[in-house]
Every structure is written in structure tokens, then in C-alpha cells.
Design a protein that fits this description.
globular; 271 residues; alpha/beta; 10 helices; six-stranded mixed sheet; Rossmann fold; four-stranded parallel sheet
Amino acid sequence: MFTVVTDSSVYMTRQEAETLGVHVLPLLYSVDGISLSEGYAYENGSYHELIAQGKTLHTAQVSPSSFLKAFGELLHMGHSVLCLTMSSRLSGVYSSATMAARELDISRIAVVDSLSTAGGLAMLVEKACELSQESRTLSEAADELVRMRERVGIALSVDNMDALRKSGRLGFVRQSVGTVLNLRPILLVRNGAVVSGGVVRGANAQLAELVRNIPAEAKRIIVHYIADQAAAQVLCQMLRPNFTCPISIAEVGPVLAIHLGLNAIGVAWIC
């Protein structure tokens, strides 16, 4: 057996992580010079207000030293470690984890790039825990997760382009797209990167397009929201007549909120 480590973009609740035995390392963010650590889902206080009022917003990855400490403690306790991180094309977390692993006992640590985040990462983390319970070796589990990540997808949308423009990660999005024209970009995570999935007009079309992007063979769906839980519930209602798989709702935390804006909504799935 091995212990699973991940970063806070997994957006699990404390209870979910503790039940699975997952160690979650916090991503960092700052608002007007005040540095904060991202907590478990629903444990980040009134971060919506903080971000909405903040003038200077930044995010930071988990540092190599944080991974060194976490890995080292687990190794000292006799555990092997499988670490799943947010996509290396969205953050430097994977690089931090691999740097730390190389400084320790690499034979007892496996680091896997999820090529995903949020619900996509969460579903891979859950699978990693299952593989540990099945007494798979580290290499067997890592290989299985690399294959499995190809079956994970994310589609999302926003209704305010300001955060996307400031993030610098989404330069392909047309500057003209915005709520003034009632246009909503559809964004997809493919091979670990965010790509354009087109543009729709209006909130109803926005939700319908998110539904359309989910494959019929999806085995599980997670609906993500940042500030608008009501929209997430509407999206769930639209999904249920079309899919028989489990569907759940999870709030996204402040780190992704800074990059996506406070009214982003999305879906993650696995086939």
C-alpha cells in the first residue's frame, strides 16, 4: 500500500480527504499583499468577497520545500508515496513535487501529472486510493493513472472575462467576448491545457453547451461552481435526464477563482 498526496486544487472536503487518507497540500494566494493558504472545499471563508474587493491578486504553487516536508514525514513513517498534481500545463506544482521526490528516495515516491485539476484531479485521486487498497505497486498504480487520465475531461465557462484576461494563461480568448454582448466562452481542458471550445450567447446556452460536451459514456460527473451555487443546481437538473451516472456538486476554491472569476461554472467527468 502507499499514501496519496495531492494539492488543494482537488477541492475535496476535509471529511472526504480524511476518509480516503489523502494528504492535501495547500496552494497559496494573496490579496492586496496578504498571503493566504487555500484550504479544503468549503473551508475558505468569505473568499468571494475578499477577491471581489481585492485590487492585487496573485496565486502561487506548492513549494518544493513543502513537498519535501510532506514526503519526508511519510517516508519516515514507513509509507511509500503516490503524488497526483494539478496539470503541469496550468501550474508548476508537478515540477515542485518531482524536484522534492528526486531529493528523497525516488524508489518509494511516484509523481503523476494529472493533466487536469478540480473534479478531474479528484476522480484520479480517488482511483489512486482504490489502487492502494488493492495493494498495487507504485509503478503499477502510476501506469494505471496515466492511462486513466485520458478518460477525464473538463468543460467550463465564465460570464466575466476580466479574470481570464489578467491571468495570462488564456491569451487565445478574444478580447471582444464579454457580458456586454452577452457572449460566454466555452473552455475545455485537453492534454492538460485550456483550449477554446467556442462561444455561445446567454446563460441558458452556456449551460446547455457544457452539457453537450460531456460524453454519453460518462461514468461520473462533478459540477463545479465558484459563487453561483444556484446555477450549479440548474446545471445538475439539466444533466440528470441525460445521464444515469452519479452527479455531484463541489465548490471551487480561491486559487482557481482568481484565474477564472467569481461566476465561473464547469463540469468534470470520467468515462
